[in-house]
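Q: Sequence in, structure out?
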Amino acid sequence: VKILGPLLAFLAVPCPAEAKMLNCMRCGAHVTTTAAIIDAKLDSQHGSFSFKHPRLDSTVQVLTNPSGRKFEVLTVSAASALAHPEQHAEHSWSHDHAWSFLTCNRCRAHLGWHFERLADCDETTAQCPLPSFQGLILEALEIVDSQTGQRNTSAHIPRLHRMI
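A: Exactly. Output:
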């Protein structure tokens, strides 16, 4: 069940009427909505900063992996994507969580990472980290109007960290 938990938890992410859908840039499969965006703090020992994304009205974190590649990452509470079962605690952008790759259910494009809490804790305390969440790569997503289903004219979410 530990391995299947992440897979089963993200099979369907509902989209409230006021939310925008975030879909896979490669194949258009539904991934999540703007209603699922959360502010989970991530940190990269190789460099990180955050900014407010104008099209999403949400905080985006720019994180650097050990090989020096930068990613603009949006954290969400749920995503319809495949969380790979192999988890890694090493080089995690969240010290309390292990990570695994997150890929599109349809085309298997790399969408980001699934973060799973490393240890059990007393969830009644404010210090307890989230049980799990996802970090999605903005470059792998497109914005779609939830009411019409139409892609925005520039549906791709632009990478902004180079302009800051």
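The CA atoms of residues 32 and 79 lie 5 Å apart.
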